Amino acid sequence: MAPQPDPEAGAAVKAADRAHVFHSWSAQELIDPLAVAGAEGSYFWDYDGRRYLDFTSGLVYTNIGYQHPKVVAAIQEQAARMTTFAPAFAVEARSEAARLIAARTPGDLDKIFFTNGGADAVEHALRMARLHTGRPKVLSAYRSYHGGTQQAVNVTGDPRRWASDSATAGVVHFWAPFLYRSRFYAETEEQECARALEHLETTIAFEGPSTIAAVVLETIPGTAGIMPPPPGYLAGVRELCDKYGIVLVLDEVMAGFGRTGTWFAADLYDVVPDLMTFAKGVNSGYVPLGGVAISSEIAATFATRPYPGGLTYSGHPLACAAAVATINVMEEEGVVENAAALGASVVGPGLRELAERHPSVGEVRGTGMFWAVELVRDRETREPLVPYNASGEANAPMAAFAAAAKKAGIWPFVNMNRTHVVPPLNTSEAELKEGLAALDTALSVADEYMR
Questions:
Q1: What distance in Å separates the CA atoms of residue 340 and residue 169, rounded to the nearest whole number?
Q2: What is the Cα–Cα distance from 79 to 66, expressed in whole angstroms?
Q3: Which of 221, 347, 378, 393 is most buried, taking the most CB atoms under 10 A from its CB?
Q4: Using one digit for the tens of pLDDT, what is the confidence trace for 419-451?
Q5: pLDDT value at position 168?
Protein backbone atom coordinates (compact mmCIF):
# COMPACT_ATOMS: atom_id res chain seq x y z
CA MET A 1 0.00 0.00 0.00
CA ALA A 2 1.49 3.33 -1.09
CA PRO A 3 0.72 6.76 0.38
CA GLN A 4 -1.90 8.63 -1.62
CA PRO A 5 -1.92 12.36 -0.81
CA ASP A 6 -5.35 13.68 0.22
CA PRO A 7 -4.84 16.88 2.22
CA GLU A 8 -8.57 17.66 2.30
CA ALA A 9 -9.38 14.36 4.01
CA GLY A 10 -6.48 14.90 6.39
CA ALA A 11 -7.79 18.33 7.34
CA ALA A 12 -11.21 16.83 8.12
CA VAL A 13 -9.69 14.12 10.32
CA LYS A 14 -7.60 16.69 12.13
CA ALA A 15 -10.56 19.04 12.65
CA ALA A 16 -12.71 16.26 14.14
CA ASP A 17 -9.87 15.23 16.41
CA ARG A 18 -9.30 18.74 17.69
CA ALA A 19 -13.02 19.26 18.21
CA HIS A 20 -13.81 16.05 20.07
CA VAL A 21 -10.84 13.83 21.06
CA PHE A 22 -9.37 14.29 24.53
CA HIS A 23 -5.77 13.07 24.38
CA SER A 24 -3.88 11.34 27.18
CA TRP A 25 -0.96 12.93 29.06
CA SER A 26 -1.50 16.23 27.23
CA ALA A 27 -2.47 19.87 27.66
CA GLN A 28 -5.21 19.75 25.07
CA GLU A 29 -4.67 23.15 23.48
CA LEU A 30 -0.89 22.76 23.23
CA ILE A 31 -0.77 19.62 21.07
CA ASP A 32 -0.83 19.16 17.31
CA PRO A 33 -1.41 15.47 16.56
CA LEU A 34 -0.43 14.16 13.16
CA ALA A 35 -3.34 12.87 11.06
CA VAL A 36 -2.34 9.37 9.98
CA ALA A 37 -3.70 8.01 6.68
CA GLY A 38 -2.33 4.48 6.78
CA ALA A 39 0.36 2.08 7.95
CA GLU A 40 2.00 -1.10 6.74
CA GLY A 41 4.98 -3.08 7.94
CA SER A 42 7.45 -0.73 9.62
CA TYR A 43 6.05 2.46 8.06
CA PHE A 44 3.10 4.83 8.39
CA TRP A 45 2.17 7.92 6.39
CA ASP A 46 0.14 11.09 6.64
CA TYR A 47 -2.46 12.62 4.34
CA ASP A 48 0.16 14.73 2.58
CA GLY A 49 1.91 11.56 1.42
CA ARG A 50 4.87 11.82 3.81
CA ARG A 51 6.05 8.41 4.93
CA TYR A 52 7.80 7.69 8.23
CA LEU A 53 9.84 4.70 9.37
CA ASP A 54 8.33 3.97 12.77
CA PHE A 55 11.14 3.73 15.30
CA THR A 56 8.53 3.68 18.11
CA SER A 57 6.46 0.60 17.18
CA GLY A 58 3.39 2.67 18.04
CA LEU A 59 3.96 2.76 21.78
CA VAL A 60 6.42 -0.13 21.65
CA TYR A 61 3.75 -2.66 20.75
CA THR A 62 3.64 -3.29 16.98
CA ASN A 63 6.19 -6.05 17.40
CA ILE A 64 5.35 -7.57 14.01
CA GLY A 65 4.65 -4.24 12.33
CA TYR A 66 1.41 -2.84 11.01
CA GLN A 67 -1.23 -4.78 9.08
CA HIS A 68 0.40 -8.20 9.10
CA PRO A 69 -1.91 -10.12 6.73
CA LYS A 70 -2.08 -13.28 8.83
CA VAL A 71 -3.17 -11.42 11.95
CA VAL A 72 -5.64 -9.26 10.02
CA ALA A 73 -7.12 -12.45 8.53
CA ALA A 74 -7.35 -14.08 11.97
CA ILE A 75 -9.28 -11.10 13.33
CA GLN A 76 -11.61 -11.17 10.33
CA GLU A 77 -12.21 -14.91 10.69
CA GLN A 78 -12.89 -14.62 14.42
CA ALA A 79 -15.29 -11.71 13.83
CA ALA A 80 -17.24 -13.80 11.32
CA ARG A 81 -17.36 -16.75 13.73
CA MET A 82 -17.85 -15.12 17.16
CA THR A 83 -17.16 -11.45 17.73
CA THR A 84 -17.47 -11.56 21.52
CA PHE A 85 -18.46 -13.73 24.45
CA ALA A 86 -18.54 -13.31 28.21
CA PRO A 87 -15.37 -14.22 30.12
CA ALA A 88 -17.00 -16.90 32.33
CA PHE A 89 -17.17 -19.33 29.39
CA ALA A 90 -14.53 -21.48 27.73
CA VAL A 91 -13.93 -20.07 24.25
CA GLU A 92 -11.49 -21.57 21.74
CA ALA A 93 -9.56 -18.38 20.95
CA ARG A 94 -9.21 -17.57 24.66
CA SER A 95 -8.11 -21.07 25.60
CA GLU A 96 -5.58 -21.28 22.78
CA ALA A 97 -4.12 -17.86 23.51
CA ALA A 98 -3.66 -18.82 27.16
CA ARG A 99 -2.03 -22.11 26.16
CA LEU A 100 0.41 -20.44 23.77
CA ILE A 101 1.37 -17.76 26.29
CA ALA A 102 1.82 -20.27 29.13
CA ALA A 103 4.03 -22.39 26.89
CA ARG A 104 6.48 -19.48 26.62
CA THR A 105 6.43 -17.95 30.10
CA PRO A 106 9.26 -18.97 32.42
CA GLY A 107 8.92 -21.55 35.19
CA ASP A 108 5.46 -22.53 36.37
CA LEU A 109 3.62 -19.39 35.26
CA ASP A 110 0.95 -21.55 33.66
CA LYS A 111 -2.29 -19.76 34.58
CA ILE A 112 -3.25 -16.69 32.55
CA PHE A 113 -5.64 -13.97 33.73
CA PHE A 114 -6.56 -11.77 30.78
CA THR A 115 -6.99 -8.00 31.04
CA ASN A 116 -7.55 -5.21 28.55
CA GLY A 117 -4.00 -3.87 28.72
CA GLY A 118 -0.85 -3.44 30.76
CA ALA A 119 -2.09 -1.03 33.43
CA ASP A 120 -4.95 -3.24 34.55
CA ALA A 121 -2.63 -6.24 34.40
CA VAL A 122 -0.46 -4.48 37.00
CA GLU A 123 -3.56 -3.58 39.04
CA HIS A 124 -4.62 -7.23 39.20
CA ALA A 125 -1.13 -8.59 39.81
CA LEU A 126 -0.78 -6.38 42.87
CA ARG A 127 -4.25 -7.30 44.08
CA MET A 128 -3.32 -10.98 43.79
CA ALA A 129 -0.07 -10.40 45.67
CA ARG A 130 -1.81 -8.58 48.52
CA LEU A 131 -4.52 -11.21 48.84
CA HIS A 132 -1.98 -14.05 48.65
CA THR A 133 0.25 -12.59 51.38
CA GLY A 134 -2.29 -10.68 53.46
CA ARG A 135 0.12 -7.72 53.44
CA PRO A 136 -0.58 -4.13 52.35
CA LYS A 137 2.60 -2.58 50.92
CA VAL A 138 4.20 -2.70 47.48
CA LEU A 139 7.78 -1.67 46.68
CA SER A 140 8.65 -0.30 43.24
CA ALA A 141 11.51 1.56 41.59
CA TYR A 142 11.73 5.30 40.97
CA ARG A 143 12.80 4.90 37.35
CA SER A 144 9.77 2.95 36.18
CA TYR A 145 6.43 3.10 34.41
CA HIS A 146 3.62 0.65 35.18
CA GLY A 147 0.49 2.29 33.76
CA GLY A 148 -1.98 5.11 34.18
CA THR A 149 -4.73 3.57 36.33
CA GLN A 150 -4.86 4.43 40.02
CA GLN A 151 -2.67 1.70 41.55
CA ALA A 152 -0.45 1.34 38.46
CA VAL A 153 0.34 5.05 38.30
CA ASN A 154 1.18 5.06 42.01
CA VAL A 155 3.72 2.27 41.62
CA THR A 156 5.09 4.15 38.63
CA GLY A 157 8.24 6.08 39.44
CA ASP A 158 8.28 8.82 36.82
CA PRO A 159 6.69 12.30 37.09
CA ARG A 160 3.38 11.17 35.63
CA ARG A 161 2.71 9.75 39.09
CA TRP A 162 2.88 13.07 40.88
CA ALA A 163 -0.61 14.42 40.13
CA SER A 164 -2.24 11.19 41.36
CA ASP A 165 0.07 10.38 44.27
CA SER A 166 -1.85 10.99 47.49
CA ALA A 167 0.58 8.88 49.56
CA THR A 168 -2.27 6.52 50.44
CA ALA A 169 -1.67 3.76 47.92
CA GLY A 170 0.60 1.64 50.10
CA VAL A 171 3.54 2.15 47.74
CA VAL A 172 7.18 2.69 48.73
CA HIS A 173 9.74 3.59 46.07
CA PHE A 174 13.39 2.59 46.01
CA TRP A 175 16.38 3.07 43.72
CA ALA A 176 17.07 0.29 41.23
CA PRO A 177 20.52 -0.02 39.61
CA PHE A 178 21.57 2.29 36.78
CA LEU A 179 25.34 2.71 36.64
CA TYR A 180 25.37 5.65 34.20
CA ARG A 181 23.44 7.74 36.73
CA SER A 182 24.25 5.77 39.85
CA ARG A 183 22.59 6.71 43.13
CA PHE A 184 25.14 4.52 44.93
CA TYR A 185 28.39 6.19 43.86
CA ALA A 186 29.35 2.97 42.12
CA GLU A 187 32.16 2.73 39.60
CA THR A 188 31.51 -0.78 38.26
CA GLU A 189 28.48 -2.90 37.44
CA GLU A 190 29.46 -5.22 40.31
CA GLN A 191 29.43 -2.34 42.80
CA GLU A 192 26.15 -1.01 41.42
CA CYS A 193 24.51 -4.41 41.74
CA ALA A 194 25.74 -5.08 45.28
CA ARG A 195 24.87 -1.61 46.56
CA ALA A 196 21.44 -1.61 44.92
CA LEU A 197 20.62 -4.95 46.53
CA GLU A 198 21.87 -3.70 49.90
CA HIS A 199 19.68 -0.61 49.51
CA LEU A 200 16.64 -2.73 48.66
CA GLU A 201 17.17 -5.05 51.62
CA THR A 202 17.61 -2.06 53.93
CA THR A 203 14.37 -0.58 52.58
CA ILE A 204 12.60 -3.89 53.25
CA ALA A 205 14.01 -4.01 56.78
CA PHE A 206 13.01 -0.44 57.64
CA GLU A 207 9.54 -0.76 56.08
CA GLY A 208 8.95 -4.05 57.89
CA PRO A 209 9.13 -7.29 55.88
CA SER A 210 5.82 -8.51 57.32
CA THR A 211 4.06 -5.50 55.78
CA ILE A 212 5.33 -5.95 52.21
CA ALA A 213 3.23 -7.93 49.73
CA ALA A 214 5.26 -7.43 46.57
CA VAL A 215 8.27 -5.99 44.86
CA VAL A 216 7.31 -4.96 41.32
CA LEU A 217 9.97 -4.26 38.71
CA GLU A 218 10.09 -3.87 34.97
CA THR A 219 12.50 -6.65 34.01
CA ILE A 220 14.18 -4.06 31.80
CA PRO A 221 12.72 -0.60 32.45
CA GLY A 222 11.22 0.75 29.24
CA THR A 223 9.93 4.33 29.10
CA ALA A 224 12.21 5.27 32.01
CA GLY A 225 15.30 4.60 29.92
CA ILE A 226 15.82 0.97 28.78
CA MET A 227 18.29 0.14 31.52
CA PRO A 228 19.25 -3.56 31.48
CA PRO A 229 19.97 -4.56 35.10
CA PRO A 230 23.53 -5.61 35.95
CA PRO A 231 24.30 -9.34 36.13
CA GLY A 232 23.04 -10.82 39.37
CA TYR A 233 20.60 -8.05 40.29
CA LEU A 234 17.32 -9.76 39.43
CA ALA A 235 18.58 -13.03 40.92
CA GLY A 236 19.41 -11.07 44.08
CA VAL A 237 15.92 -9.54 44.18
CA ARG A 238 14.47 -13.02 43.77
CA GLU A 239 16.51 -14.19 46.76
CA LEU A 240 15.37 -11.26 48.90
CA CYS A 241 11.74 -11.92 48.02
CA ASP A 242 12.13 -15.59 48.95
CA LYS A 243 13.89 -14.65 52.19
CA TYR A 244 11.10 -12.36 53.35
CA GLY A 245 8.07 -14.10 51.82
CA ILE A 246 7.48 -11.29 49.32
CA VAL A 247 5.87 -11.81 45.91
CA LEU A 248 8.11 -10.86 42.97
CA VAL A 249 6.16 -9.24 40.15
CA LEU A 250 7.98 -8.66 36.86
CA ASP A 251 6.37 -6.19 34.48
CA GLU A 252 7.01 -7.39 30.91
CA VAL A 253 4.36 -5.21 29.27
CA MET A 254 6.96 -3.48 27.11
CA ALA A 255 9.89 -5.90 27.23
CA GLY A 256 7.92 -9.08 26.55
CA PHE A 257 7.09 -11.03 23.41
CA GLY A 258 10.42 -10.81 21.64
CA ARG A 259 11.32 -7.18 22.21
CA THR A 260 14.63 -8.09 23.90
CA GLY A 261 15.47 -10.89 21.46
CA THR A 262 13.94 -13.52 23.77
CA TRP A 263 10.28 -14.30 24.37
CA PHE A 264 10.51 -12.55 27.71
CA ALA A 265 13.27 -10.39 29.17
CA ALA A 266 13.28 -12.65 32.24
CA ASP A 267 14.78 -15.34 30.00
CA LEU A 268 17.93 -13.23 29.72
CA TYR A 269 18.45 -13.37 33.48
CA ASP A 270 17.22 -16.89 34.28
CA VAL A 271 14.79 -15.52 36.86
CA VAL A 272 11.25 -16.76 37.44
CA PRO A 273 8.85 -14.30 39.09
CA ASP A 274 5.71 -15.22 41.01
CA LEU A 275 3.57 -13.03 38.77
CA MET A 276 4.37 -11.54 35.38
CA THR A 277 2.37 -8.89 33.54
CA PHE A 278 2.17 -8.61 29.76
CA ALA A 279 0.33 -6.69 27.03
CA LYS A 280 1.43 -4.71 23.94
CA GLY A 281 3.42 -7.23 21.86
CA VAL A 282 1.22 -10.20 22.80
CA ASN A 283 -0.84 -9.40 19.70
CA SER A 284 1.16 -6.51 18.27
CA GLY A 285 -1.44 -4.14 19.69
CA TYR A 286 -3.98 -4.98 16.97
CA VAL A 287 -6.77 -5.40 19.55
CA PRO A 288 -6.38 -4.34 23.23
CA LEU A 289 -5.14 -7.26 25.36
CA GLY A 290 -3.02 -7.75 28.45
CA GLY A 291 -2.73 -10.22 31.26
CA VAL A 292 -1.07 -11.70 34.30
CA ALA A 293 0.84 -14.98 34.17
CA ILE A 294 0.40 -16.64 37.56
CA SER A 295 2.57 -19.16 39.43
CA SER A 296 1.09 -22.40 40.70
CA GLU A 297 1.47 -21.28 44.34
CA ILE A 298 -0.48 -18.07 43.87
CA ALA A 299 -3.05 -19.76 41.64
CA ALA A 300 -3.63 -22.28 44.45
CA THR A 301 -4.63 -19.41 46.76
CA PHE A 302 -7.72 -18.99 44.62
CA ALA A 303 -8.46 -22.66 44.00
CA THR A 304 -11.41 -22.71 46.41
CA ARG A 305 -11.42 -19.03 47.37
CA PRO A 306 -12.95 -16.73 44.74
CA TYR A 307 -10.64 -14.20 43.18
CA PRO A 308 -12.36 -10.83 43.73
CA GLY A 309 -11.71 -9.25 40.36
CA GLY A 310 -12.65 -9.38 36.72
CA LEU A 311 -13.32 -7.43 33.55
CA THR A 312 -16.19 -7.51 31.07
CA TYR A 313 -13.77 -7.97 28.18
CA SER A 314 -11.31 -10.34 29.86
CA GLY A 315 -10.01 -12.63 27.15
CA HIS A 316 -12.02 -10.95 24.39
CA PRO A 317 -12.24 -13.38 21.44
CA LEU A 318 -11.06 -10.85 18.84
CA ALA A 319 -8.06 -9.89 20.98
CA CYS A 320 -7.22 -13.51 21.75
CA ALA A 321 -7.52 -14.55 18.11
CA ALA A 322 -5.07 -11.77 17.28
CA ALA A 323 -2.74 -13.07 20.01
CA VAL A 324 -2.88 -16.62 18.68
CA ALA A 325 -2.09 -15.42 15.16
CA THR A 326 0.68 -13.09 16.36
CA ILE A 327 2.44 -15.74 18.42
CA ASN A 328 2.22 -18.21 15.55
CA VAL A 329 3.58 -15.63 13.10
CA MET A 330 6.46 -14.86 15.45
CA GLU A 331 7.27 -18.57 15.66
CA GLU A 332 6.88 -19.32 11.95
CA GLU A 333 8.79 -16.27 10.73
CA GLY A 334 11.57 -16.31 13.33
CA VAL A 335 10.66 -12.84 14.58
CA VAL A 336 12.27 -13.25 18.00
CA GLU A 337 15.45 -14.59 16.44
CA ASN A 338 15.46 -11.69 13.97
CA ALA A 339 15.24 -9.20 16.84
CA ALA A 340 18.18 -10.84 18.59
CA ALA A 341 20.31 -11.14 15.45
CA LEU A 342 19.76 -7.66 14.01
CA GLY A 343 19.94 -6.06 17.43
CA ALA A 344 23.40 -7.57 17.88
CA SER A 345 24.68 -7.09 14.33
CA VAL A 346 23.04 -3.86 13.15
CA VAL A 347 21.31 -1.76 15.82
CA GLY A 348 23.85 -2.04 18.63
CA PRO A 349 26.94 -1.53 16.45
CA GLY A 350 25.19 1.20 14.46
CA LEU A 351 24.26 3.17 17.57
CA ARG A 352 27.72 2.78 19.07
CA GLU A 353 29.18 4.09 15.80
CA LEU A 354 26.87 7.11 16.02
CA ALA A 355 28.05 7.66 19.60
CA GLU A 356 31.63 7.89 18.38
CA ARG A 357 30.69 10.64 15.91
CA HIS A 358 28.24 12.65 17.99
CA PRO A 359 29.40 14.23 21.25
CA SER A 360 25.78 14.67 22.36
CA VAL A 361 25.50 10.90 22.87
CA GLY A 362 26.43 10.08 26.43
CA GLU A 363 25.57 6.39 26.43
CA VAL A 364 24.00 3.70 24.25
CA ARG A 365 22.39 0.69 25.93
CA GLY A 366 19.98 -2.08 25.08
CA THR A 367 19.41 -5.50 23.57
CA GLY A 368 17.33 -6.99 20.77
CA MET A 369 15.10 -4.22 19.38
CA PHE A 370 15.08 -2.37 22.70
CA TRP A 371 17.67 0.46 22.82
CA ALA A 372 18.13 3.87 24.39
CA VAL A 373 20.42 6.72 23.39
CA GLU A 374 21.19 9.06 26.29
CA LEU A 375 21.68 12.63 25.09
CA VAL A 376 23.83 15.01 27.11
CA ARG A 377 25.15 18.57 27.06
CA ASP A 378 28.49 17.46 28.46
CA ARG A 379 29.94 13.97 28.30
CA GLU A 380 32.26 14.54 31.21
CA THR A 381 29.65 15.76 33.68
CA ARG A 382 26.86 13.70 32.06
CA GLU A 383 24.54 16.69 32.30
CA PRO A 384 21.36 15.70 30.42
CA LEU A 385 20.61 17.53 27.18
CA VAL A 386 17.43 18.82 28.86
CA PRO A 387 16.55 18.96 32.57
CA TYR A 388 14.52 16.22 34.23
CA ASN A 389 10.85 16.48 33.22
CA ALA A 390 11.57 19.52 31.04
CA SER A 391 8.83 21.25 29.09
CA GLY A 392 8.43 24.34 26.94
CA GLU A 393 11.61 26.26 26.19
CA ALA A 394 13.66 24.06 28.55
CA ASN A 395 12.87 21.11 26.29
CA ALA A 396 13.84 22.93 23.08
CA PRO A 397 16.93 20.81 22.32
CA MET A 398 14.96 17.55 22.37
CA ALA A 399 12.14 19.16 20.38
CA ALA A 400 14.67 20.23 17.76
CA PHE A 401 16.16 16.74 17.67
CA ALA A 402 12.71 15.16 17.22
CA ALA A 403 11.77 17.60 14.45
CA ALA A 404 15.01 16.83 12.62
CA ALA A 405 14.38 13.09 12.91
CA LYS A 406 10.89 13.42 11.43
CA LYS A 407 12.19 15.61 8.62
CA ALA A 408 14.75 12.89 7.88
CA GLY A 409 11.98 10.29 7.60
CA ILE A 410 11.76 8.48 10.94
CA TRP A 411 9.29 8.86 13.77
CA PRO A 412 11.39 8.88 16.96
CA PHE A 413 10.51 7.75 20.47
CA VAL A 414 11.59 10.67 22.64
CA ASN A 415 11.37 10.79 26.43
CA MET A 416 13.10 13.43 28.54
CA ASN A 417 16.76 13.53 27.37
CA ARG A 418 16.66 10.24 25.48
CA THR A 419 15.63 8.77 22.19
CA HIS A 420 14.69 5.11 22.18
CA VAL A 421 15.24 2.85 19.19
CA VAL A 422 12.34 0.41 19.34
CA PRO A 423 11.27 -0.53 15.79
CA PRO A 424 9.12 -3.55 14.92
CA LEU A 425 10.98 -6.80 15.55
CA ASN A 426 10.70 -7.86 11.90
CA THR A 427 12.13 -4.62 10.54
CA SER A 428 14.63 -5.48 7.81
CA GLU A 429 18.35 -4.78 7.90
CA ALA A 430 17.93 -2.24 5.10
CA GLU A 431 15.17 -0.43 7.01
CA LEU A 432 17.25 -0.35 10.18
CA LYS A 433 20.17 1.19 8.30
CA GLU A 434 17.79 3.75 6.80
CA GLY A 435 16.65 4.63 10.31
CA LEU A 436 20.18 4.86 11.67
CA ALA A 437 21.10 7.24 8.83
CA ALA A 438 18.17 9.46 9.76
CA LEU A 439 19.25 9.37 13.41
CA ASP A 440 22.72 10.42 12.30
CA THR A 441 21.22 13.52 10.73
CA ALA A 442 19.07 14.32 13.76
CA LEU A 443 21.93 13.86 16.22
CA SER A 444 23.85 16.59 14.39
CA VAL A 445 21.12 18.94 15.58
CA ALA A 446 21.49 17.68 19.16
CA ASP A 447 25.24 18.29 18.91
CA GLU A 448 24.56 22.01 18.42
CA TYR A 449 23.36 22.24 22.02
CA MET A 450 26.56 20.92 23.57
CA ARG A 451 28.29 23.18 26.09
A1: 38
A2: 19
A3: 347
A4: 999 999 999 999 999 999 999 999 999 999 987
A5: 85
